[in-house]
Amino acid sequence: MKLNPNFVNIFSDITSKAAIASFSYVGSGNKNKADDAAVKVMRNSLNELDIKGRIVIGEGELDDAPMLYIGEKVGNSNGEEIDLAVDPIEGTNFVAKNMPGGISVLAAAPKNGLFNSPETYMHKLAFSGEVENDALDIDFTIEKNFKNLADSLNKNLEDLTICLLDRPRHNKIIQTAKNFNIKMKLISDGDVAGALLVTDKNFSVDLFLGIGGGPEGVIAASALDCYNCNFKGKFIFATDQDKLRAKKMGIDDFDKKYDLKDIVSGDSIFSATGITNGDLVRGVKKNNNKFMTETLVTHKSQNLVKKIEKFTVIK
Question: What's the whole-model pTM score?
């Protein structure tokens, strides 16, 4: 089943509205108010649509409302059955502190087309389609992945650039990269946007790797699929509670490694609107009551990748 092409503009409108709603909190230091504003607009906009929508990737579970929670039904119960992955603000700290990279994100697929990810961490690898899918693997050593990446791209190790979250858990990766003189782009948050830096040579990132949120991995994969890039993930179930929640979501193999095709099946649409300026998209610009937004959208069945600029007047 293919998604209606009209959803490209509809979903880009929704992330654009959510970005605008959070814009007044840019630099406010209050990430919760920024997120609440974006959540409210995104939920209201989704509920106006002629869809039978289900949130499969959200910001929490039922008890965490008013966040858009996993399992929440959206739409007016007419039209297509659609699974949705939402992150009204990816990079709430970026928005609160007026730092680059805050975006509003939504991904969609026909029913059962998006992997229902648990709220847990995931080992991730994202890299371009120029590299054979099996050249890199979650279970390979860091050294082997770096060397295989260099060989696949016909580059010297010191000519590689990797991107990862700047976290203590990544100290071994960072030290290994230093040993090989590999360049690094360390990011403080926003691993959806970080993973998408492998999609375009202009970003000069050859590999995104490390441990980040599993839901963010699913969202990133929905966009990477349209770029013919590669994504690999392996969930981390640190506690019995994690495993119990995973079982309820249909996951029985806790050691399974997931390729992109396991995470996104069939058609998909991805929409990301900038709130603050970043590598992927420009942030919201305001002139009196007029707002300009830039949104990156992809639609797999149309082989569509484009940016949409929108002017919105708020009365």
Answer: 0.94
